[in-house]
Amino acid sequence: MSVVNTSSTSDITQDGALAGAAEPGTTRAPGRRPWWHTLFRQKLALTGASIVGFFALVALFGPLFAPYGPTEQFSQLRLTGPSQNNPFGSDEFGRDILTRLLYGARISFQVGVIAVGISAAIGVVLGLVAGYFGGWIDNIVSLLMDVLFAFPTILLAIALMAMLGNSLGNVMIAIGLVNAPTFMRVVRGSVLSVRQMTYIESAVSVGASTGTILRRHVFPNITAPLIVHASLNFATAVLAEASLAYLGLGNKPPSPSWGSMVSSSYGFLQLAPWAAIAPGLAIGITVLGFNLLGDGLRDALDPRLRNLS
Amino acid sequence: MLKYILRRILLLIPILFGVSLVTFLIVRSIPGDPVRVLLGADARSTPEQIANIRRSYGLDQPLPVQYLKWLGHVLTGDLGQSLRTGRPLTQELSMRLPVTIQLASFAAVLGMIPALLFGVLAAVKRNSRLDWMTTLTALAGISVPNFFLATLLVLLFSYKLRWLPNVGYKSFSDAPLDNLQLMILPAASLALPFMAVLMRFTRSAVLEVLGQDYVRVARAKGVAQSRVILRHVLPNAGIPVLTIAGIQVASLLGGTVIVEQIFALPGVGRYIYEAISNRDYPVVQSVTLVMAAIFVLVSLIVDVLYAVLDPRLRNR
Q1: Chain B neighbours among A 135-154 (CB < 8 Å)?
Q2: Are the beta carbons of B266 and B95 closer than 8 angstroms?
Q3: What value does the mean pLDDT take over residues B51-74?
Q4: What is the pLDDT of residues B110-139, one digit of tens each?
Q5: Among all residues of chain A, which has the CA nearest to that of B289?
């Protein structure tokens, strides 16, 4: 078995070589997975990466290929089922669902990128500071994050939307703020372990400034968990955007956000199930893609977790 | 351990204080005049009338005073009253909280049983077909938004099969069977993501314990597989699983906001959503605080249970 798996990728080589060196000839060495399991995991990660890539392409270029306009109405086509001209059918205003899905991808993608960016920026700065300095700074930052954690996230996002006003930009801000504490935790935890390293001690002893240490020595060493978390958080952000849109927050009705497409077609569910199923599946598949990619990245980047998944 | 529990309880105070402050500040920065909302569409009231109402609700005082007053009232068990209906919130909550609690606990039970069962089985029978199915189900579960799941369930069970009603509420004490029928779809919509997270976590927790030396020793000395699992693996894997379950149960509360909206359940989640849309300050403020308090209390209980159950922590 190990002969087969050593050849495919570097990841497996490392794994197989280690296990093989430790216990040659044993049938089920703990910590070693059969090669087909690795392949399956990788296949999942690959599927995730493909979904994410496809989604990004659709978000960027999809509208160019849209057969109609996102709010173009064809009154004779109200709630018609999938057909050659409307592959996913049409909605209650006779709008083409495929077209709206293509435009909706752009909304999800934008919100995802910017919301994750906001969360990451806040979380990284606070996490670095709290983890590196410790003491009362850590206590205050951690308390602040614990306070934010105490709210059910969707509730906090709704309240923030009410405060900021109903617009797409504010959806990004609200989701970004709500998810920032999770980034802070991930970063803080990683910084705590990096801080113990000898290279930090030596950087301090040669008189490097704190800013330099954080930038040049701490941050580059916490990017792996950060990337994993960002990918998983993208999934959360897309879900949150869809949920807010479902509740009518952020995207006013003609907007082709996937969440609001599901909610506006709920009333016609019996007549035209496709109008709700198509955008719902779009959300589910996109989120699944980011989750798979995040899991795959975690497996690849975090060797400690490699044997657990 | 008593010291540990006390410290956890003490930590609650600054958190809840912070929660109240954040809630207050958010609610007060929501644009729109609540008095206008209160007066309704025909705002023919004179400025004096408006000022009177403002005064009677204490809205004319400076913000810090309003905050401290509110906090004082909340601490003495007075949550205030709704601007729209004028009903005291404690009364509203006593009607609505049971709905939400029933929904969340129903969902928790519905999700927990398969999560633990299949999580353990998947880890024990690692790489089997069952393990794959578990992994795939869990991945699907964390990826499907609860409102879409609710939509699919309604489509299947209410419209196609016509087995279950898709909207409405009857209390359990009035009509237990109707209540369960009405609750099962909302609970299932909430339960799937919960189940998915817990299942994944159970699986990896059990896998981690299976790799421990003491499990290998137990196996090496010939302990039967079932006994290894029951005596050595489950007690050790159970503790972290419990923590995650607790956090997830608390997060079910957040899900109720959307699910109650879809199924028109008169619970707290729907109430607070409506209150936000209506600018009903006192309701949003106090109910958010209550929800956050429940959330924090559940995690406290879980942490304490953790300490009680884990012998390594028990003697501290």
Answers
A1: 143-144, 146-148, 150-154
A2: yes
A3: 83
A4: 999 999 999 999 998 888 888 888 988 999
A5: A151
CATH value at residue B243 = 1.10.3720.10
User: Does B186 fall in a domain?
Assistant: yes
For residue B261, the enclosing domain spans: 89-277
* Chain-centre distance for alpha carbon A141: 24
Express each pLDDT in A43-96 by its tens digit. 888 888 899 999 999 989 888 887 777 777 777 777 777 777 777 777 777 788
Residue pair B285/B27 in contact (Cβ under 8 Å)? The answer is yes
- State whether B273 and A34 contact (CB < 8 Å): no
Residue A162 forms contact with B (CB below 8 Å): yes
Is B52 within the bounds of a domain?
no
Alpha-carbon distance A282 to nearest alpha carbon in chain B (angstroms):
10
Interface A:B, Cβ pairs < 8 A = 145
Average pLDDT over residues B226-248: 83
Full DSSP string of B88-126: BHHHHHHHHHHHHHHHHHHHHHHHHHHHHHHHHHHHHTT
CA–CA gap between residue B277 and residue A38 (Å, rounded) = 50
Alpha carbons A161 and B269: distance in angstroms, whole number? 16
The verdict on residue B284 lying in a domain is no
Q: What is the pLDDT of residue B315?
A: 57
A positions 9-48 inside 8 Å of B (CB): 30-31, 33-34, 37, 40, 44
Tokens of A266: 């709920």
Q: Do B22 and A30 touch (CB under 8 A)?
A: no
Tell me the per-residue pLDDT of A109-164, one tens digit each, with 9 for 90 and over: 999 999 999 999 999 999 999 999 988 999 999 888 889 888 888 888 988 988 88
The number of folded domains in chain B is: 1
pTM: 0.84
Q: B15 lies in a domain?
A: no
ipTM of the complex in this document: 0.86
